[in-house]
Amino acid sequence: PALLLLVLVLRCQAWDLRAPAPLLRAGCRRRCSVMAVETVHTTATETPVHVTRLVDALSLAVSDRRRVDELVTLFEYDGLVEAAGERYSGQGAVKRFFSSLLLENGFTSMEVLDTPSSKGPDDATLRLGLTSATGTDEVALLLTFRNGLVRECHLQAAEGACSPAGCLLPSALEPSENGGGPKWETFDGRVRQKIWQRPGAFELGNPFIKETMELSTGRLILIVDQSVWDIYGEKMQAWAASVELQLETVVIPGNEDHKTLATFAHLLDELKRVDPLRRSEPVLAVGGGVLTDTVGFACACWRRGVPWCRMPTTLLGQVDASVGIKVAINYHRKNGVGHFFSPLHTFIDTDFLGSLEAADVRSGVGEIMKAALVHSERIWELVSTHGE
């Protein structure tokens, strides 16, 4: 802050400013007047508000993983995080990166090691100490801002510390060595969902579902859309026999008008009947987004949550519901009652798309176009080229 230097000229009959100040006699007249005011500026450096907000949000996220969402709001919609040569673009990817980073490394506290430095108003470098039970990792965040939001964040380990690839990069986000891993992954801070794109899941002798779901009891609890069962039921039964699985099947309607409390209660009764073992028998939901939403909510509520997996069979379900973790039923309004409950696995089998009606295809394409319009020029061009 600026300091005000008051230049005072004192005029007093008993005080000659050119000589040592004598003792003032009683009754002497004393007068002073302000002749000039001069402003003296100091050179204090203040941290920009948007950098302070980011530091505060990082600290809160370290202490409480559920507050990663608040951190992500400080990034642009298509903001970028880069670590160990891997790029995570878009708020969804940024959230998954920080959620995995904080959880897997078990960080419990954060310290800003020195004053943030910058070369201009739209960039900053933060040096942080992230402490876990095994010690403290020093990292640097090289930040670029635009209109107060993070445009890019490059994470680097401090010199002499372990590399981001070795100790900071979440293992679930590392590229697969053999290319056989899941197509995508999501992470809600508790459950890591793997999303697999594999056609022919129900081909005779294909062990992929059995092995991926780690079914060890010889039984698969299958909750399936009535329309899907009518078309593929015999194929599913033949597949189950070929991989030595017993199907425990629950068939329910998958229309929007069946996304109700009544269907939800029926599913709870069925879950009680089949009594899935919590760890060894995840439930598999096969059908459109309505069915997977309803089954997911029932699994979230039964015994305070039993593991589940899903296989969306409609185009809309595969491009939209497949990556979300919200599950709900309609009550007084669409999705009026629900929860956040991630499946263990989502299986995308495009073989189901060949039996869809034209209206179902249009619904899915509409969702693809919406996503392309707001986020991806490449997808928009792909739809424009092959939309016919």
UniProtKB/TrEMBL annotation:
- Which molecular-function annotation in GO is an example for this chain? 3-dehydroquinate synthase activity
The residue ranges of the 3-dehydroquinate synthase N-terminal domain are 250-362
Pfam families, from UniProt? DHQ_synthase (PF01761)
Note the superkingdom of the native organism: Eukaryota
Which spans of this chain does the record mark as coiled coil?
Answer: none
Task: For this UniProt record, give its keywords in alphabetical order, as a comma-separated list.
Answer: NAD
User: What PANTHER family does this protein map onto?
Assistant: 2-EPI-5-EPI-VALIOLONE SYNTHASE, 3-DEHYDROQUINATE SYNTHASE
Q: What is this protein called?
A: 3-dehydroquinate synthase N-terminal domain-containing protein
Q: Which organism is it from?
A: Phaeocystis antarctica
